[in-house]
Amino acid sequence: MTDLSQLTSSAYSQALEVIASVEPRIAEATRQELADQRSSLKLIASENYASPAVLLTMGTWFSDKYAEGTVGHRFYAGCQNVDTVESLAAEHARELFGAPYAYVQPHSGIDANLVAFWSILAHRIETPALERLSAKNVNELTEEDWESLRHEFGNQRLLGMSLDSGGHLTHGFRPNISGKMFHQQQYGTDPETGLLDYDVVRAKAKEFKPLVLVAGYSAYPRRVNFAKMREIADEVGATLMVDMAHFAGLVAGKVFTGEENPVPYAHLTTSTTHKSLRGPRGGLVLAQEEYAPSVDRGCPMVLGGPLSHVMAAKAVAFAEARQSGFQTYAQAIADNAKSLADGFLTRGANLVTGGTDNHLVLLDVSSFGLTGRQAESALLDAGIVTNRNSVPNDANGAWYTSGVRLGTPALTTRGFGHDEFDNVAELIVQVLSNTQPGTTKAGGPSKASYTLADGVADKVKDASAEMLDKHPLYPGLELS
Ligand SMILES: *Cc1c(COP(=O)(O)O)cnc(C)c1O
């Protein structure tokens, strides 16, 4: 039998030849992207490496099919194979997460959140209004009733975690549509400990009485008790929506169980599929039965035609995550984050909340005399790919920031373990302690420039290369 890496090698080599026959520069950029990903330390907490099976599934003629609607109820003819794909993806998602209902059409995490928001408005505002007015749908309303319903849609409240405490733009951040379509308020973390304080969330919820309570995060290095969040939502009559975009892999891999698993507690759980879950770029909504009919209207309410090729790849990724090896992977993500955090703490670096118990650490770089932007750039010079991130009450604002966010899902996929992550902490500390902040033309400290001492980048790259060579990305995949 031909082994899989050989098959993958010839599949991609031939695909690149076909692409090069039309636009060789795209084929070349594609090759270069693989080479770059292979040779850098990818610590971006929201990124991963999907399997060749997932990636190959995306490159097919399913891309060419329109399939607006739902399984068995499409606005286009000829959707029998898309129906197979979407049913399988949804079935795998329900089984994987133990959810009553799964909607696999959202094109991205933000789309999944928009579907959830509108389905909450549909379920809690529109449906009761239509019942009250004995109308089947909004087209049957008088102009006056329609205006009043539109007014109601536009005057609902949402409470979510603030961006600089680790929440996401879509959790009510004012510049985002979520902060404009809702009256919004935000909860933060404790200024001393950096931890979520449920009593503060409860007090805010009681005062603000939101329709939607959002939990979940992009840059909070701790676990959340979703039973407590649901209790708070119930106390104020809110719908609990949990956005598990970052940590869906830890839920799927049963690292987050009991009250740390959002799926049984949330009315709606949204996610991306490409972060710790290691699938194709896309979104997902899980829901309790009562919300299923309104979520099902995601397309055409918010979404256009589903990306059938990506739904197919979601089915493949969910099938992978249902294999027992995925639980080992998910546990390793969390164990490795601990090793990384301990590596920083033993070397005297500061971490927001003093550590981690999920897949990410938030390194406060101000003790190195640097902004997050300087740190991110200096690290990139040394082949370490990260992203800068605000820390709570960040003195440098959201652009320059004072932190760097680091996650373990990607390098864990490559097989990095405790010793490697300890060494990653060492290399990062070496870079940052050898970086000097620059000065502006005016002579003050510049937030954009820095100097990395001679020789450090090369030394760090050599040390990284040794680890990366030991744990190749897509072992056996060779492009001809
Ligand atoms: C990444 C992320 C999203 C957005 O996902 P996209 O696929 O980039 O749209 C939404 N919510 C949270 C919490 C995220 O971390």
TrEMBL record:
It comes from the Bacteria. Keywords: Amino-acid biosynthesis, Cytoplasm, Methyltransferase, One-carbon metabolism, Pyridoxal phosphate, Transferase. InterPro entries: PyrdxlP-dep_Trfase (IPR015424), PyrdxlP-dep_Trfase_major (IPR015421), PyrdxlP-dep_Trfase_small (IPR015422), Ser_HO-MeTrfase (IPR001085), Ser_HO-MeTrfase-like (IPR049943), Ser_HO-MeTrfase_PLP_BS (IPR019798), SHMT-like_dom (IPR039429). The record marks H274 as: Plays an important role in substrate specificity. CDD domains: SHMT. Its main location: cytoplasm. Gene3D superfamilies: Aspartate Aminotransferase, domain 1, Type I PLP-dependent aspartate aminotransferase-like (Major domain). The modification N6-(pyridoxal phosphate)lysine is found at K275. Its cofactor is pyridoxal 5'-phosphate. One of its GO terms (biological process) is tetrahydrofolate interconversion. (6S)-5,6,7,8-tetrahydrofolate binds at L163, G167, H168, L169, E289. Belongs to the SHMT family. Homodimer. This is Serine hydroxymethyltransferase. The lineage of its organism: Bacteria, Bacillati, Actinomycetota, Actinomycetes, Propionibacteriales.
